[in-house]
Design a protein that fits this description.
It is a single chain. With 211 residues, this protein is mostly helical. It has eight helices and two strands; from the N terminus they run H-H-H-H-H-H-H-H-E-E. It has a two-stranded antiparallel ribbon with strand order 1-2. A hairpin with a 2-residue loop joins strand 1 and strand 2. Helix 1 packs antiparallel against helix 2, helix 3 runs antiparallel to helix 4 and helix 7 crosses helix 8. It starts with a helix and ends with a strand. The relative contact order is 0.07.
Length: 211
């Protein structure tokens, strides 16, 4: 599905680029240029939506119908705006306060897709986003990463890692071996109070002593 959508995006981009490039021809833009833009833009937009909503090899599921409807609305809207006769004047009827072609562009191309797509995404949220199995895999991956980094479940340093940091800090100089200094260092690196009075060997001037 993604490969097809990517191919459609590339073809639409080439069509849009060719339509723009035709404006630099000696005789001006080609007669087909507006139609190239009108057809290329809906194809590109739908292709981008498909790539964004695809999950692995499952495609877009029930979102295929809303995507197709939006693509059809865009293509028909642009085509009507180009094909309708340019005979609008001061006495032309207004549709929701706008002339016909302006109403088609604003309401049919600009407004309706904004209404349809969020509703479609909301109705297919459970199918197209993380299901319970995916959430379990995400949590397991997070736990594995925290264990590899020596972190506690809340993201803070584990007691063993913090204790190691405390021991390294107090072994830097002989005067740092005092119980008061060790207690302050343990609090600084976040060692839980329950482990504060556990015996820790401190290397002082080449000898191992217990605080």
């Amino acid at each position: 599905m993604k490969r097809t959508a990517l191919a459609a995006i590339v073809l639409a981009a080439l069509l849009i680029a060719a339509s723009y490039a035709s404006a630099f021809l000696p005789g001006g833009a080609a007669s087909w240029a507006p139609w190239g833009l009108a057809m290329g833009m809906p194809v590109m937009l739908v292709g981008l939506m498909v790539i964004g909503a695809s999950r692995g090899g499952q495609g877009v599921g029930r979102l295929a119908w809303p995507f197709a409807l939006v693509g059809l609305m865009l293509a028909v809207g642009f085509a009507l705006a180009l094909a309708l006769p340019a005979d609008e004047g001061a006495g032309s009827p207004l549709y929701l306060g706008l002339p016909l072609r302006a109403a088609i562009i604003l309401y049919g191309i600009g407004l309706l897709p904004i209404v349809i797509l969020p509703v479609a995404y909301a109705l297919t949220f459970r199918d197209q986003t993380l299901d319970p199995e995916d959430l379990v895999r995400v949590r397991e991956a997070g736990e594995a990463w925290r264990r590899s980094q020596g972190l506690a479940p809340d993201g803070s340093a584990s007691a063993e890692k913090a204790s190691g940091e405390s021991e390294s800090a107090v072994s830097a100089s002989p005067e740092s071996a005092s119980p008061e200094h060790m207690s302050a260092e343990r609090k600084r690196v976040g060692v839980p109070a329950s482990t504060e009075h556990e015996p820790v060997l401190v290397r002082v001037a080449g000898d191992e002593v217990a605080p």
